[in-house]
Amino acid sequence: MAVAAHAGFIGGDTHDHIHPEPQGFIRKYVFSLDAKVIGIQYMVAAFLFFLISGLLAEVVRTQLLVPRGAILSNDTYNGVYSLHGSSMVWMVIIPLMTGAFGNFVMPLQIGARDVAFPWLNLLSFWLFPVSAVILFSSFLIGAPDAGWTEYPPISVQGPAGTSLWCIAIFLIGISSTMTGLNFMVTIVKMRAPGMTFTRMPLFVWASLATALLNMVATAALSAATAALFMERQFNVPFYDPTRGGSPLLWQHMFWFYSHPAVYIMILPGFGIVSEVFPTFARKPIFGYKMIAFSSIAIALLGFMVWAHHMFTSGMAPWLALPFMILTMVIAVPTGIKIFSWLATLWGGKIHFHPAMLFSLGFIATFTFGGITGVFLSSVPFDYDAHGTYFIVAHIHYVLFGGSVFALYSGLYYWWPKITGRMMSNTLGVWHFWLTFLAFNVTFLPMHLLGLWGMPRRVAQYQLHPEFQFWNDVASVGSYVLALSTLILIYNMVQSLLRGRRAPGNPWNARTLEWMTTSPPPYYNFRTIPAVLKNPYNFGEPLPYIGLDEAESAGSTHPPAGSSPLPAHA
Amino acid sequence: MAQSRAHRKMSLGPGFWPVTIALTIVNVAISYVIAVFPFEQLVPIVGAPADQIDTLFRFMSVIGNAIFVYVLGYLVYFAIVWRWRPSDGPDAIGVQVHDVPKLEFWWTVVPSIIVAIIAIFSVRIWAGMQNTPGDVLTMEAIGHQFKFEFRYPKMKNSVYDSMHVPVDTPVTLNVTSADVLHSFWSPSLRIKADMVPGLVQTLRFTPEHIGKYAIICTEFCGTQHANMAAALYVDSQQAFGAWLSAQARQQGQASAPVALGSGQAAAGQALFGQKCSTCHSIGPFNQKIVGPGLGHLFNDPAHPALVTGEKASPAAISHILISGYQGPIGVMPNRQANALSNQDIANLVAYLTSLSQKKQR
Ligand SMILES: [Cu+2]
Questions:
Q1: How many CB pairs (< 8 A) connect A and B?
Q2: Closest CB from A75, A367, A387 relative to B223
Q3: N or C: which end of chain B has fewer CB within 10 A?
Q4: What's the predicted TM-score (pTM) here?
């Protein structure tokens, strides 16, 4: 096929000239406009917050070792679990999914030199550490205690830090909206010539769906937190029923954002798994179009199901039914993805690289969490399970077993591209197995505890000492999880210090980000290639023309004499 | 782009059918276990609709388990059978299939049908929960930080911390809150409703098994949220009648509000020696016997609020004496158990108040 035809199709929007790289530490690493640097900044900051919030989780599990609560007063404990949840959602998973991988990988994958609005990107990033610092500093004046959902009226009366929580979440919401807009424009307008929508890598499809969610849904969160702040500080009774407000208003606004937010937290993960599977199974992704379109379907349906979090809240009872049915409908496109990934394994030549292991583990744990999600969408069952440890178990199967496993997978996959260094596969394999086992030991028992009668958000369970055994099992699991994270940290550090230099395309993958050096140069590609086909046709020549020879050297052929994929079980 | 190369007849790979059969057998076995598993021994059930919700849960568990076992089974099996082997050489690639439209059609349609069945089943059970035949007992539950209040028709005063219902009588329970959000949940009822200030929600159930069950708050409501609980007693018809009339008798005597002003500290001191000193000292809070020391209720910096979370005041103390309190330390008996008249309560409060005042001077 002729390149020119495709270049015409895309139009002349691609940024075709190379800007000089800025010099000086501040412009290069602190207030950088380069999406790759911003991606790394997101990654470093969010990983730091991941460790902090992980520590908070260990505090939670330690408190629950004994029925009376082992270490903290009820008030302190309530602050700890609230900050654990808030920070994991807004300061860790969302920034890693969109901010870190979205910024680093997506522009490379579409053959762009940067995102559409680099200054906006810079602003998005800097709002993030600022809001994280505000969030964590609420500990100093009394941390918010009503969980990451901060339902009024208790959150109106809550400790002073709850106002800081409002500010932090408002700011991070603005940052998300801007990133969504930025990515949307970037993906729609800045793809390399010839990269039609059906030639986009699946991570890009996932980022597109996520951008839509970020752009539209986050506004509701910003409005809700602004109103909560005003009620707390200026006594404007948005949520106070005695003065004409409504506590349910908050819940509707909050979940109008926070249900789409669960897809913001998982869709890019689907994208990561969809990149890792073809590369390490040496096969085209099965059902490319179905996977791509199901991301969009999930995003659109994701706007219409928020009230499944509110079956017991006090809306008109019949209203639960449409929300139940729509929620169950989402299981179908999600199932399509899972079956397509399974079919991608079939007939493959599978290499058990840590990235692949985490993607495989993702399928197992995410499927489990998805199934309990369908359970919970059934209104009568939700009447029982809502607000209990069953929910805590479900949320961790989808957000840890789903999102975090996918993030780990993406980390192992793109680490050489990002840092130019290889990680140790052996340590990676250890990290995977320890995480996978400890994860299940920690969260599986919580299903039982929930149905047995343990509500979530309790600092003590002294009225039911029989819950202790399984709580202790969960706590021990969580300690092993912490340990497994140390392996990852060690692996990263040793890779940065003395890791083997990474070639441009260490996994012999086929998407565009691997067609340049590791790490990529400031301008990503010296010449923007034209794209002839869908990227995943293994065994065919690469579908790109016009790549700079020197830059993409080693992309088409593995280094002579050795398998490009070092880890074999 | 969908150049499907799958049309040439391919074998499904070594062991595909044996593995499929094995997974199916595992599924049947697990389904059987789920079908007979005695959930109601782990968490006993009170009656309808808990039994139907258990049936729904069992049904969804069987389906969910089947899907999970197949997904996990094929995942592991494919990963093993289709792994790269050194003999394949570094450039080996997998079978280049892109699409099998027929397969994709079925794995869209079958899950849709399964989901539809679950939805219909759920809607039917939900519909059954919307009406209780006969409407025999209508009562109210009100959430407070941090206790449950229950109100019965024709009963003047509320009952706290324990809810009595007669067996085999449909109950309509209206729930609401006096302050922040709470949630009324009994694991044995398998249903809950948030207690929302300014809003009344209705729960319907029919108790069928006599016994004592847990009521738990499942919506975060503040410091003592973890300890906000009550007991649900399903009584025989006679026992319930007896309880009602006993309640009415006590209330007839107690329905006049306690006149705290009329308390005599000296009389209170005498009574304290008879009824309270087995469990309480008059030292500081930490000087415990069974319950805490009561000498500094108003002015102990180590213990700024009462165990109920309220600020110390004569009214708050009299409330503890009337309703009793179950907290982390133990059980403080209520007025019935301590056999306290209104005057006794006023005297005791006056005495306890005077203790703190002495220490202040
Ligand atoms: Cu949701």
A1: 269
A2: A75
A3: C
A4: 0.83
